[in-house]
Amino acid sequence: MKTMMLVLALVLSLASGCSRGGGDTAEKVFADMTTNMQEMAAILDSVADEATAKAAVPRIDAVRAKMRDCARRARAVPRPDAATEQRINAAAETVQRDVMPALMATRQRLESRPELMAILAPALQGMENDL
Q1: How many CB atoms lie within 10 A of CB 14?
Q2: Cα–Cα distance, 51 to 54 (Å, whole number)
Q3: Among the listed residues 99, 120, 115, the one whose alpha carbon sits nearest the alpha carbon of residue 6
Q4: Dihedral sign from CA coordinates of 85, 87, 88, 93
Q5: How far apart are alpha carbons 15 and 121 in whole angstroms?
Q6: Residues 6+ apart with CB under 8 A from 101
Q7: pTM of the prediction?
Q8: pLDDT in tens, the chain (131 residues)
Q9: Torsion angle of alpha carbons 99, 102, 106, 107, nearest 10°?
Q10: How do the domains of the chain map onto residue ranges?
């Protein structure tokens, strides 16, 4: 659910846009965020035991830093035209359909393993605020 909120927040921030983007476009930022979300899903999916959970923490931190950078970039890009906004919205729906279910299933699997969540929770805490 929190990850779905991240996607929605990104779409809204890209749709509203602000000032000049220094060469970035809303589509580029959205593509980068999608890549980050896929990377996060792969990291979480790789966690099977305490050793892999501990190894995942610095990788999660790195992806979250990239997510915060995408959010900063999204605030700087100009508002996209209607056609671009439609393409981003369609892409967001695809992400929600394709990435979110796998990410949610992985998160549920991990939440059923308190010993793993004890390791991962600090790295995941506040992720919904990264955008």
Answers
A1: 27
A2: 5
A3: 99
A4: positive
A5: 31
A6: none
A7: 0.79
A8: 444 445 544 444 444 443 344 578 999 999 999 999 899 999 999 999 999 999 999 999 999 999 999 999 999 998 889 999 999 999 999 888 888 888 889 989 999 999 999 999 999 999 888 87
A9: 50
A10: 2-130
